[in-house]
Amino acid sequence: MKLRYFVSGSSAVLAGWLTVTFFNHVPAQRYPRLDRESTAAISPTAPPAETGASGEKSVVFPVSVSP
Length: 67
Hints:
Blueprint: H1 2-23
């Protein structure tokens, strides 16, 4: 019987969260631009990527942040 209340309650909370986030307006300036000019980061003339402490290559994505 407690499982039924848990599933019903968590479903209601999830449905509420999805409803709120669906109607939340996010301006287009908060997303990174993905145009043809942004492919310059992967050009063969680009400097090699630095390696992190674990030895993996670090990847830098160009992102614009508006206040």
